[in-house]
Design a protein that fits this description.
CATH superfamily of the largest domain: Tetratricopeptide repeat domain
Number of strands: 0
Number of helices: 9
Distance between the termini: 73 Å
Helix content: over 70%
Number of domains: 2
Structural class: mainly alpha
CATH architecture of the largest domain: Alpha Horseshoe
Shape: elongated
Largest sheet: none
Length: about 210
C-alpha cells in the first residue's frame, strides 16, 4: 500500500503532463514526483517504478538544460528518457520528453519529429501542444537556414538552402494554422508568412538571375 501511495503521487504529475496540454507542469512538481517515485522504488525496486523515476529525472534535466542552455544537462535528459523508454516500453511518456529536448534544447527538429512518431506508435494522439512544438521546430530551422544562406549569397548552394528554408516555413505555417487559435499560433502564422514572403522574393531574384 505504501508503494502504491507514493507511485500514485508520481503518476498524477506524469498523467497530467500527458493528458492535459493546457496545464503547465513546473519544475517543483517534477521534483515532488521524482521524490515520490524514489520512495516507491525504495519499497519495491521494479522496472516500471524505476522507469517513472528516470522520466521525472529526464524532465528536470530537460528544464534545466533548456533554461541554462547547458549541453551537459540536455544530454543527461536524453540519457534519462532513453533509460525510461527501455523500462517503460509501452509508454509514450519518455518520447514526449525526448521530443521537447530535441526541439527546444538541442534544436534538432528531425529527431523531435521521430520521437513524436514513436509516441504515436505507443498510442499517443498528437495534440495542439505537440503540433505547436513541431511548428516551432520547423520555424526555427527555417530561420537558421535563411540566416545562414547569407554566407553563400550569389553562390550555387544559396538556392538550395533558401528552398529548404521555404519548405520548413511552409510546414510550420500548416501546423500553426491547424491549431489556430491555440497558444500563440495566430501570431506565429503571421510571423512565418512574412519570413516566407522574404524567402520567396529572394528565390525569384535568383531565378531571374539577380544577385
Amino acid at each position: 500500500m505504501v508503494k502504491q501511495k507514493f507511485a500514485a503521487a508520481a503518476d498524477r504529475v506524469i498523467d497530467t503532463y500527458r493528458n492535459n496540454e493546457a496545464q503547465l507542469i513546473y519544475e517543483k512538481e517534477w521534483e515532488r514526483a521524482r521524490t515520490m517515485a524514489g520512495r516507491a522504488l525504495a519499497v519495491d525496486p521494479e522496472d516500471s517504478v524505476r522507469g517513472k523515476l528516470r522520466l521525472c529525472e529526464g524532465h528536470l534535466a530537460r528544464i534545466n538544460g533548456t533554461s541554462h542552455r547547458s549541453a551537459q544537462e540536455l544530454s543527461l535528459a536524453v540519457e534519462k528518457f532513453d533509460e525510461a523508454q527501455k523500462l517503460l516500453p509501452k509508454s509514450p511518456d519518455p518520447e514526449l520528453g525526448l521530443a521537447r529536448v530535441y526541439v527546444y534544447g538541442l534544436k534538432d527538429i528531425d529527431k523531435g519529429y521521430e520521437a513524436l512518431q514513436q509516441a504515436q506508435k505507443r498510442g499517443y494522439a498528437l495534440g495542439n501542444r505537440e503540433k505547436s512544438l513541431l511548428a516551432d521546430g520547423y520555424r526555427d530551422r527555417g530561420d537558421r537556414l535563411w540566416w545562414d544562406s547569407r554566407n553563400v549569397r550569389g553562390l550555387p548552394p544559396e538556392k538550395d538552402q533558401i528552398q529548404r528554408a521555404a519548405d520548413d516555413y511552409k510546414r510550420a505555417e500548416e501546423l500553426y494554422q491547424g491549431i489556430s487559435p491555440w497558444g500563440k499560433s495566430i501570431v506565429n502564422v503571421v510571423r512565418v508568412r512574412l519570413s516566407l514572403e522574404s524567402v520567396n522574393f529572394r528565390l525569384q531574384q535568383i531565378e531571374s538571375g539577380a544577385h
